[in-house]
Amino acid sequence: MSSARVVECVPNFSEGRNEETIQAIASAIKSTEGCSLLDVEPGVSINRTVYTFVGSPESVVMGALSAAKVAYKLIDMTKHHGAMDVCPFVPVANTTLEDCVRCSKSLGEQLARELGVPVYLYEASQERDYRRSLQSIRKGEYEELQEKLKQADWAPDYGPTTFVPRWGVSVVGARKFLIAYNVNLLGTKEQANRISIALRESGGSTGKKPGRLKLVRALGWYVAEQGIAQVSMNLCDYEVTPIHTAFEECSKDARELKLGVVGSEIVGLVPLKPILMAADYYIEKEGLFVLHESQKVRLVIDRLGLNSISEFKPQEKIIEYRVGSNTDGPLASGSVRSFVEQLAARTSAPGGGSASACIASMGAALGAMVGLLTFGNRKFEALDPVMRVAIPPLHSATQQLIPLIDKDTQAFSSYMEALKLPKTTKEEIAKRKQAMQDGLKDAIEVPLNVMKIAYGCWDYMITIATHGNETALSDIQVGGCSLHTGLKGAYYNVCINLKQVTDEDYVRTVREEVERMSQSSEDKLTLLLDTVKQRQNKGQ
Questions:
Q1: How far is CA 206 from CA 28, 30, 132, 221, 460, in A?
Q2: How far is it, in rounded angstroms, from Cα 184 to Cα 503?
Q3: Predicted pLDDT of residue 196
Q4: Domains of the chain
Q5: Which one, of 110, 135, 137, lies nearest residue 121 by Cα?
Q6: Alpha-carbon dihedral sign for residues 77, 79, 82, 83
Q7: Cα separation of 221 and 195, whole Å?
Q8: Residue 443, Cβ neighbours under 10 Å: how many?
Q9: What is the DSSP string of 14-39?
């Protein structure tokens, strides 16, 4: 489980025929540090190319800006409608829609400042309802832009109100990830369309009776080369209508029509999160015990029949796997020897914070290990229900703590950047001071998170100590001591940084929370060790 922040950017440039221009824009994206270009899809007939790339929020903004600068030099709208048409930012991993709104506004501001072009915001980035949809902004097309820009209600969000003939306007914004998803039926186009009408939010053509699935667009068609019908859906927000919900509801209607469902397909790429959401659904529904991410992905491929049309290859289809953003940082992915030697080096990082996250992760891991040595063992078969409850949270905590080993080392980056800010004028001094305070809070959040995750393990650790395999009791003792040591180390890191924070309310709130967890952790460790000691004494 990675903590890498990933945003997808999908800029459209209305040049789909000139290969040299298409490749020049692609090169600009690929050469931007932190950006991974996933797809370039030119459309000759509509003279448009769609680029798909991902990266950190900061990287994708720079990638989009670099692409726009190249397009500005190479495309002239007076010859054909080109330049950067629309550019949405989409949250993929460890990012929010609000993060993407900030990306779009940053890009819009820079496009206006550096290229001198008008820019509109749309979708979640636009605060005015009447100009939120792309269709509203595009109304009148290029030909009416000159007059539209003069209207007070249609002044651009950034840039000049004067017409820029060679560019037109750009529309930037933020939206949720759209999943193109098809369910396969042994039926006719008409039957597939009947199901699509019942499911899609808009319902039938009259719109009087809405469909059952929110934020879903759908239609039915027949795929002759496969000999199947499909309910083809756009899931506009997979957190509102997840993939598994779409599949199950479609299957339900197919059964009522006595139609066979023969799998489904995801068109294009998909984030990891909706796949894991589907895994959690089937695990709960069927009472399964599945811990590892790779097994969860495999379960979803099977339950949704994602191999039915073509092989679903996770390393190619899941965005985080495709770009390697699910990999650990250098400390967590290196050897134990390398990490320990770096701790011993004459440098301030990695330091106690990274060590604390590592030690806490080992504590949770040992708890999970003892649970697994108990689960599935015929001797302890009666304890399987108990272990099914206790093991998953400890496994999850281990996976959450591992990325924090590296993240703690990076935590001071914003504070160190703030120290470099100018401090000549009163305004600069105030800005620098605020940035330093924000940086300190960022640095506190990592060890605070270590404490919260570690503290959440205690009840499950005590359950394992009470019921776990008696041949591994020393392991749960070591696990408990490690968990407490990691939590306590994180506590010291929080406290030392709190001393420099001037926000009294923040300091009071955080201090109360960490003091409570620190004291309670000592009590929990004592209980765990006493529990194990009693079991050991009984066994003598």
A1: 46, 46, 24, 20, 54
A2: 57
A3: 96
A4: 6-174 (3.30.990.10), 179-323 (3.30.70.670), 330-539 (1.20.120.680)
A5: 137
A6: negative
A7: 11
A8: 25
A9: S--S-HHHHHHHHHHHHTSTT-EEEE
The pair phi, psi for residue 36, each rounded to 5°, is -120, 115
pLDDT of residue 459: 97
| Close Cβ partners of 425 (under 8 Å, ≥ 6 residues apart) | none
Q: Return d(Cα 77, Cα 303) in angstroms, integer.
A: 49
Averaged confidence pLDDT in the chain: 91
Cis, bond preceding 392 (omega within 30 deg of 0): no
Using CA atoms, how far apart are residues 56 and 203, in angstroms rounded to an integer? 38
pLDDT of residue 325: 67
pLDDT digits (tens, 9 = 90+) for 376-386: 999 999 999 99
Cβ-Cβ contacts under 8 Å for 499 (sequence gap 6 or more): none
Q: Which two tokens stand for residue 60?
A: 């994708």
Token representation of residue 234: 């756009």
**pLDDT reported for residue 485:** 98
Tokens 């990933």 belong to 6
- Tokens standing for 505? 């309310």
- pLDDT at residue 135, rounded to an integer: 81
Closest CA to 361 of 328, 401, 332: 401
pTM greater than the 0.90 cutoff: no
Q: Compute CA distances 319 → 177, 242, 507, whole Å.
A: 12, 17, 39
pLDDT of the residue at 147: 76
Q: How far apart are the first and last CA of the chain?
A: 42
Neighbouring CB atoms inside 10 A of 152's CB total: 6
Total count of residues recorded for the chain: 540
- DSSP states of 236-263 as a string? S-TTTS-HHHHHHHHHHHHHHTT-EEEE
- How many angstroms separate the Cα of 236 from the Cα of each of 120, 144, 215, 243, 264? 22, 30, 5, 11, 18
d(CA 370, CA 471): 9
pLDDT of res. 419: 87
Residues of the chain with pLDDT under 50: 81-82
Give me the sign of the Cα torsion angle 253, 259, 263, 269. negative
SS3 string, 313-358, reads CHHHHEHHHHHCCCCCCHHHHCCHHHHHHHHHCCCCCCCHHHHHHH
How many Å separate Cα 63 from the centre of its chain?
Answer: 19
* Cα–Cα separations (whole angstroms), residue 484 to 238, 393, 517, 523: 38, 17, 10, 10
Residue 465 three-state SS: helix
